[in-house]
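In this supplementary section we document a worked example of the pipeline. Step one takes a protein sequence of length 171 as its only input; no multiple sequence alignment statistics are reported here. Step two produces a three-dimensional model, which step three serialises into structure tokens for compact storage. The input and output of this example are shown verbatim.
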Amino acid sequence: MATASPKKTASTAHAKAAEKPNATASKDIWLAGLGAMAQAQAQARAQGGKVFENLVADGLAFQLKSQAAAQEKINEAAAHFNQLAQGLGGGLGGGLGASVCAKVDRLEHLFEDRVARALQSLGLPTAKEVADLQARVTQLEAALAVASKTKTAASKKTASKAPAKTRQAKA
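The serialised model returned by step three reads:
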């Protein structure tokens, strides 16, 4: 029985390890990280502040290296932009000016078309539709003003006739 028990326990432990859910695996990874941090702290205590100073020096060197690389990329982009700007500026005075202006006009037209399609897909009215609606509202306001004037005039006529009818009814 004693020999069967360890084999059984080892096989069940292996089966349980294979069936560990992700949460248990994550916990194991977390604990391994804590263990590594504990070892690093122990080494830091043993070696004193030298490890910390080395880390600071390495961090400073990396920062300077990355800043230099970023500045180099910025300078390249600025030089490329200036070159393009000079090419466009010089082209406007020469024969390229007309083609550049034509391309800009074409780009504007494409942009306006795309914006118009986007607005239409959102269900927003076009400028022409808004102008048509404004004209229609103006027409309706004018018709309403005429109708209200005729109604007022008709009600005044009815009001002047109403007392005469009431006098005749009383007599």
